[in-house]
Structure formats: structure tokens, C-alpha cells
Amino acid sequence: MAKKTAAAKGSSMKNFEERLRRLEILGDQIRKTDIPLDEALAAFEEGIRLARALESDLEKIENRIEILMNSTEVPLDESPDLELFDAGEN
Q1: pLDDT(80) > 80
Q2: Would you call 83 helix, strand, or coil by DSSP?
Q3: CA atoms of 30 and 63, how far apart (whole Å)
Q4: What is the pLDDT of residues 5-63, one digit of tens each?
Q5: pTM for the complete prediction?
Q6: If you count DSSP H runs as helices and E runs as strands, how many of each does the chain have, helices first?
Q7: Integer Cα distance of 51 and 84 in angstroms
Q8: Between 2.60.40, 1.20.1250, 1.10.287, 1.10.260, what CATH number should domain 13-68 receive?
Q9: What b/e sequence results for 26-58 when a residue is b if at least 16 CB atoms lie within 10 Å of its CB, and e otherwise?
Q10: 89 vs 13, 21, 22, CA distance in Å?
């Protein structure tokens, strides 16, 4: 497994945050009363996909944090390789 650079990790976090913002936008769109039903349904479907991917990413983060917190030997010079933000993109 190749290590990611700091820029790549920052980019992964940005992708996560961008997907989260997109989910919020979709939620706002669905709440509008003047949106056509087919557009509301498409926004809902995209929102469900995003929510599931983000939830999966957060579970992976939680698991990794738990491992790091319970580990007795964590190398100080090694940063964690999460590689989870890219995996959730569809």
C-alpha cells in the first residue's frame, strides 16, 4: 500500500467535506415545496447514496481511532494511513 502525501490526505478530507456539503444542499432542495417530484426523487436518491458513503467513512475513522487509542506502541514518526475518503466515492 503506497503512502499518501499530506496534500493527498488533505484532498481526501476536502472530498469528504464536499460530499457532506452536497448532502446538505440536497436536503435543502428536497424541503422546498415547489420542487417537481422527479427532481425531489433524484435528489433523495443521491442523498441516500451520499449518506451511506459518509456513514461508512465515519465508521472507518472511528475504528482507526479506536485502534490508535488502544495501541500501546504507535510510532511517533508515522502518520496514520486512513485511505477511506477515496473508497467511499461513487
Answers
A1: no
A2: coil
A3: 32
A4: 545 555 555 688 999 999 999 999 999 989 999 999 999 999 999 999 999 999 998 99
A5: 0.61
A6: 2, 0
A7: 15
A8: 1.10.287
A9: beebeeeeeeeeeeeeebeeebeebeebbeebe
A10: 12, 14, 13
